[in-house]
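@here heads up, posting the sequence + SMILES for the pyridoxal-5'-phosphate run so it's all in one place. Ping me if the SMILES looks off, I pulled it from an old spreadsheet.
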Amino acid sequence: MSSDDLHKRRVAAVARGVGSTITSYVDHASGGTLTDVDGREWIDFAAGIAVTSVGNSAPRVVEAVQRQVERFTHTCFMVAPYEAYVEVCEQLNALTPGDHEKRSALFNSGAEAVENAVKIARKATGRQAVVVFDHAYHGRTNLTMALTAKNMPYKDGFGPFAGEVYRVPMSYPFRDGRTGADAASLAIDIIEKQVGADNVAALLIEPVQGEGGFIVPATGFLPALAAWAKSAGAVFIADEIQTGFCRTGDWFASEHEGVVPDLVTTAKGIAGGLPLAGVTGRADIMDAVHVGGLGGTYGGNPVACAAALAAIETMRELDLAGAARTIGAIMLPALRDLAERHPVIGEVRGRGAMIALEIVKPGTTEPDAATAAAVSKACHEAGLLTLTCGTYGNILRFLPPLVMPEDTLRTGLAILADAFATV
Ligand SMILES: Cc1ncc(COP(=O)(O)O)c(C=O)c1O
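bot reply: prediction finished. Complex structure tokens:
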């Protein structure tokens, strides 16, 4: 059945609120490409939104999933536990920043992990306020919508939202021109004046913001916030759902400036495309929750855990943190060169294999979402799958699988350059 036929069926069957970037339907996918049902090959600069870092249908993941499915598919860890759940928690405890004693709990989605991190922080501190940042994205459930900054499309008409959520300015060097220290002082001053340090249960932040625009905070911003949280007795939660598992060239983006979060949320890249998420953190904070206070029917499903263990092994064996750094080293100079020729590119930024272009009206910082959309569309027409994002919708973002062969990456970059030449 062709993509056109499938699309007609989809329009009649699937709720309109669930959008898709492209209208081609996938038949199969590998390390760097998707092939649609019409036989057309796409270069994948999306990785299912930073998920298939080890590639689609990565051999170890496929083998581990097949083996697990044959043994058992589900018991519910809260009913009858199994080793793979424990082993994923051991891996998370070992891999996340800091060598203190840690515990982990597993869930199904990033939003669920963030919700649970907030629950844990509130229980551990006996406080309620959660501080989040401009441009933040933490999910689509009721609490995580409240934590997310952007109204359209994530929140519009879906309120009322959960309370005790306070938003402060993010460090956004392209737009605020502040040093990390100045941006942190501004945020801390607002927290102290408007929330009160003693009321803060958690300070929740993406070390590099994802959906909000691939915003890399100025150096010093994250360490200053982590230090303030410590002094205020608040839990510092790093949402590493998009940045984690090698994406930014380290296992976790917090490591870049030596920040050791109290809690870390993970999902996306953790399990090679199977749904799994985690909260990992200081044993005393994690274990402040009473027995039975955390869980869910499917959280840490054995098939997803088997996939995660295989994905983590693949990341280690292939040094995918190094691969992400190599991707960045190839992409950043090529994109800076493109920016010289196209003044609509206001900034090239990112780290490792999490790279973006901020599109503006030339010579200004005025966002130009229409041009970003036009470039993205031209890429799609030429077979390169790219995504846009950002509070202003003007960010072109690139998240190739970390196993993408170099020639595929360079072909993708050439398509992108041609797309800029045509808009
Ligand atoms: C930083 C961050 N937190 C949370 C989420 C929500 O994850 P999920 O879509 O798995 O619920 C996302 C998803 O894009 C994310 O990027």
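MO: The mean pLDDT is 98.
MO: One more: The pocket of pyridoxal-5'-phosphate is lined by residues 49, 109-111, 114, 137-139, 206, 210-211, 239, 241-242, 267 (CB under 6 Å).
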